[in-house]
Amino acid sequence: MSTKEKQLEDLLLAEDTQKQNEIVLYNDDVNTFDHVIETLVYACEHTLEQAEQCSIIVHYKGKCTVKTGPYNELEPRCSMLLDAGLSAEIV
């Protein structure tokens, strides 16, 4: 095995073992679609289409993963969602 192949293998292994957390947004009977969409665009940097799709999934399924990544990147985003009155958690 060449050095280049070994480095690529190590990189792929590191990516597989890195824990990815998720922000899960939950449905509620309080917030409007427009508020949820605007908040997802602001807090999670979604496009308008992504935010609309997530809001529809949350409405019909009860929850939706809206962002994935390392915990330290998700925590401030989740806080923004909570500060806006949405129900969300990092799992």
TrEMBL record:
Highest taxon above the source species: Bacteria
The protein's name in its UniProt record: ATP-dependent Clp protease adaptor protein ClpS
Domain Adaptor protein ClpS core: 18-83
Record-level GO BP terms: protein catabolic process; proteolysis
Organism: Marinirhabdus gelatinilytica
SUPFAM superfamilies per the UniProt record, alphabetical: ClpS-like
GO function term, MF aspect, one: peptidase activity
Keywords: Hydrolase, Protease
Pfam families: ClpS (PF02617)
